[in-house]
Batch of 2 targets.
Target 1
Amino acid sequence: MRALTVEPRRAASARVEEVDAPVPGPGDVLVEGRLVGVCGTDREIADGAYGAPPDGRHRLVLGHEAVGRAVSAPDGTGISPGDLVVPIVRRPDPVPCASCAAGEWDMCRNGLYTEHGIKGVDGFAAELFTVAADHAVVAPEALGDLAVLVEPASIVAKAWAQVDHMAERASWRPQVALVTGAGPVGLLAALLARQRGLETHVLDVVTAGPKPGLVADLGATYHTGAVTDACPAPDVVVECTGVGAVVLDAIAHNPPGGIVCLTGLSSGARTVELDAAALNRRLVLENDVVFGTVNANHRHYLAAIQALGVADAGWLGRLITRRLPLAEWEAAFRSGTDDVKVVIDVAA
Amino acid sequence: MRALTVEPRRAASARVEEVDAPVPGPGDVLVEGRLVGVCGTDREIADGAYGAPPDGRHRLVLGHEAVGRAVSAPDGTGISPGDLVVPIVRRPDPVPCASCAAGEWDMCRNGLYTEHGIKGVDGFAAELFTVAADHAVVAPEALGDLAVLVEPASIVAKAWAQVDHMAERASWRPQVALVTGAGPVGLLAALLARQRGLETHVLDVVTAGPKPGLVADLGATYHTGAVTDACPAPDVVVECTGVGAVVLDAIAHNPPGGIVCLTGLSSGARTVELDAAALNRRLVLENDVVFGTVNANHRHYLAAIQALGVADAGWLGRLITRRLPLAEWEAAFRSGTDDVKVVIDVAA
């Protein structure tokens, strides 16, 4: 079968090649691949900057945002042949930490997890893949190909679940949200903010392309410029750029009791001069919260399916700005100016 | 009656003087002053760096950590003449914000609160003071003069309540705590950490004086040096120094899922060079939480009384390293090398 593989930590090593079809172990679902989404982590791995192959191998099947159709599944798993299946990216180490043992592999404490298509286990950019049945969720038929958005939506479902928990430390509830960055994660974070009934502002750098319209059609407000111009007093900031200056601006410019949720990652170093004492004073005197969140566990995938299920399908469809066959994976990995989410059709 | 007063924002204006005895309004408790504790905020106000007098006046009665005995109290308040009374520092604005309206004035969102002895209302360094009955708590007789520690203990009771809430975002529970700074707040934070059964480490700069022994007698470990030397993997850091470099070290050196609770304040600017992108990556990839906490509300005063009530009275007594009569307030305001908490006996 065909798969998109890479030798992690070696630039320009990615290619589509014929590999052996995976053999499902006990407890595994065999899935016919349909779509995989491309994200910054995939590009980093293809660039040789990140990733690890399975033990004893040099190459890794790429792809971790995926949807496919079950070919076979063990009895009693609730998964039947033909079901639309979304695999879960992270798997706990066989000797799990306290978080992983409790099913919260997204909160792993020892870093020994593996991640399909990223670290130690094959991904889903293949005509067939296997995944443990307890690490797969069934998406409703109505979602169809949009189920490729479940994985990025699971990231923001976790982020908002954590924000909701943080907010409960006080008696009042957030009413105004600022999302920094209008990529797929930022736009999905804005969708969930609107679903929570929040006045929502989204900040990005582009003035053209689909992003301003996508934000407007959520009933949110699109901004460019500085964090402080976008929204002077957000109760919650969901930071999706990872850019150091934006992160610090978000922390320094919220109202008392503000919550800053960090989800973005940027590579490289970015040294800034910072008055650490002043930043500390602000956090203390305003009871501010800053926290990071990464990955998602089983319940966040279910929450993501729920959130996508009640969203406007037309709007979700517009997030997928390009869809390319597997053979054209290189074009898919090049970011276009007007791209939100690019997906690869592994069956085409 | 005698009171320690100051003209806020004017250095060297503090003095003990004769002032009119306060007249309790409806709902007020009249209290005979007993002890007031001196903290960094009092010193800042005496130095002219902070504070505000009541409307229409130039001078403010100082003192916000206090214990006294009720002289009179309105019926139905649960306070009787002779009761040991601890007044609550912060009062909501008459037009309260959402937090203040819910009794969480410690989480005030508009900054319009007042604070006895600090901002807009007289403090408690006086032979008599009044306080609203719903802003006073009765301490058990067994606590006696140690009830002067209720206010600083309320700060750490709130801090730990917030830490406990943050910890509940994950399935595991913290087991190792690092407290940075062994002043009164740090030592009380360590006391509450031990009461929670946590392995507790305390970091300070001094090697002599009472602090190492106070920490050891809690069953905690005393450290000097760098944050990373003190405790390489604290699940929780309660930061009580406000020193920028310590704050950043605490944030940068905890294990995945670490919680850093900021309680300390330092004055002035402290510019550092910081790789903001790397700090952000760490927070995101490790699901770390950093939050600030200030002040305390009614339930935290009750929690403080509870925590002090089950602590060793001898240990608590050693926190009070000097006790001076009101006339010697200037000596009390000068920090001694071996001081933990200095208190002023307003009746002596």
Target 2
Amino acid sequence: MDSTQQPSLVDTIISPEWLIPVSINGQKLDKTLVNHSVVIDKGTILDIAPNHEIQQNYQAKEHINLIGQALIPGLVNCHTHAAMSLFKGLADDLPLMLWLQNHIWPAEQQWVNDQFCAAGLQLAMAEMLKSGTTCFNDMYFQPHITAKTAKKYGMRATIGMLMFDFPSVWGSGPEEYLHKGLQLRDDYKHNDLINFAFAPHAPYTVSDAPLKKIATISNELAIPVHMHIHETAQEVKDALKATGKRPLQRLQELDLLTPNLIAVHMTQLQRTEIELLARNGVSIAHCPQSNMKLASGISPIQELLTAGVNIAIGTDGNASNNDLDMFGEMESAAMLGKVFCGSAQACSAYEMLFAATMGGAKALAQDELIGSIEIGKAADLTAINLNTISSQPVYDPISQIVYTAGREQVSYVWINGQLKVREYQLVDFDENELLASAKHWQQKISHSIN
Amino acid sequence: MDSTQQPSLVDTIISPEWLIPVSINGQKLDKTLVNHSVVIDKGTILDIAPNHEIQQNYQAKEHINLIGQALIPGLVNCHTHAAMSLFKGLADDLPLMLWLQNHIWPAEQQWVNDQFCAAGLQLAMAEMLKSGTTCFNDMYFQPHITAKTAKKYGMRATIGMLMFDFPSVWGSGPEEYLHKGLQLRDDYKHNDLINFAFAPHAPYTVSDAPLKKIATISNELAIPVHMHIHETAQEVKDALKATGKRPLQRLQELDLLTPNLIAVHMTQLQRTEIELLARNGVSIAHCPQSNMKLASGISPIQELLTAGVNIAIGTDGNASNNDLDMFGEMESAAMLGKVFCGSAQACSAYEMLFAATMGGAKALAQDELIGSIEIGKAADLTAINLNTISSQPVYDPISQIVYTAGREQVSYVWINGQLKVREYQLVDFDENELLASAKHWQQKISHSIN
């Protein structure tokens, strides 16, 4: 640049101690940049370069120096039921079916409505933002409230167009679920933060005809399909008994095994099924803490990675995990992956960070826009303070992020260049109001079950 | 009490929203008290009663109201190599033997001395106190520095009288290790915070004769024995090949399977061995995150609990975990326990909280003194703020502590009635100094390995 040229005026410059792009041009990049800054303008990453070049070329409205801190792409939580946050800890340490049938389903029957979902979503979004998550992939009742709340708080979200065979508070049956879902998608077509996925709940709750219809539309319009699949051995066993087929085979026959599919859980996988998933470009949303806590099983993540399957990470809902903390989830994914396949090399810190960012972006077909720190991408960014007693000394920042850092070390969060967390504080929420609301609901719900 | 009687003057009254005693008279107590206060005087729990009674009967120099907070017994970390904190994240995601042989052992050879240990221990103690741990059971080189540093900062510790067959920076061989260890124990016999355990490293590093000697002295003087046992399948396989016996059988023949034994890891256990451990009153120090991260295996905790074996919880050293956070460890213990035995009921939140407090106290033969909130016990206490976005709403405080709370929610910590953490801040440490020291060591160590 000509030294007489005026520096460009931009919105923000961020100068972290460690800049971790995670990916470049769609490829893995296990590398940390030092003495580099990121330039944000109009919501987009305009430049990434050594500090002295940035200082010469740009003048920013705000320059944020992050000494002792790492900057990573915003975390992508690829499987949530966010509005369930008001049920967190309602009934723990119970067998899965007892938990569902005697606690969660009756509580949902009694409490889930627009108002409950709005309150739960605010609490969940506050929790996600504070812990560095910038985008979530949701499946729950009242998706219109999810979309509306995400839009209100400027969170990036993929909203599940929920479907069951049976009626619920959100619809009367497959026809209406499909209609309402697509209508909602249409309502938000001009909002670049809000995206949509089909969300047929599970193979055992949605029958062939509506699944076939979803496959057709999904393949035509490239809409993701977000579905619980092979969560437990019992599910596979029941399907074999009822249909003579494992669920994955049935979904293949219904043309659902495509790059649009986000298969959640997948704890039960045979060798040939892993190859099938790889061949068809299916993404897995791995939820290690939910799978452990509900004793569902363990997904063979390293085998899937080796086969070339795209892995994303999700927390699952607050009632089963019981938090929406992607730091805990990355760490659990790494640790569980290692002990499951008997190799300390498996599921490395970098691979899990990739899964929690770019892996999620790919699953949601948003990888041109988010998932890595690259010029031209949206400025969805998370800063993590590693200058803490528990993260010092820092030999390898990626290792410290996955194995030592906690959500409390998230200092700044941007979505589309907008600050959502500043100096550990939520920008758009009043925490005291959220806490009061959570207590209010807890009292109502406790009263009804005791 | 006569209403005209003057209230007694005491040191401290603590009034938490939830008081969780964990145990009563050595028995399990899965119960939370509300509207109760704890009275501390001269380091001891003097009274526990409803708030109005406490207010009538006592006047305190300091009255701490903990609205929205839970009070639990101080956490007991039952297996650490605390001074290793300066190696945290030095070499991750490597196969166990490569990690040890090419990274950890050479680094130890080069760096471990009194000065390194003192710096590492300060960082580790600061991390433990901030995350609610009041007592730790350590095994590492330079135990005289561990004892000295714990005494200096008023932390309760059981110091391992380390032993190998081979020489190290701490001694020339079994004779000297034994002599130096017992001498050190003698030096601290009048300090009620510092206790000692024999710490023969592992069955494969200490031969029969010194182990026999340890068994004799341990049984005579009721000194705990802290030892890595059955950490990996390879260890058991190698022992079978070398001796024709599984390590546990050999230890039984050496009279080491007694209530004094703290068997660390124990990922390889046969049904008959579980019964043997139960019959002989052996305690297990369960380190789930280390076992996962190093792909060592999974200890059958629920089976051990069902058989009546006492379970304690440890983090292992910072180089293998990579933190000293008992909140993460309790959660991992619960989750891993459930998925391992295929039951969401297994390893409940309460059982894991018991293991992390009273279980550890029992293992260390300190259960008359610590491990529960009971009148007459030492005031080792940890307060946890549950009035946070991620822990609200609170249906069951024990569940929220294990499944949602993080170390950052620890607001107050007392050891022997002395405040160690006040309003989230360490009382006796300068954090900036600790961070500077960690960076100083990181630079020296990095320089030597690159």
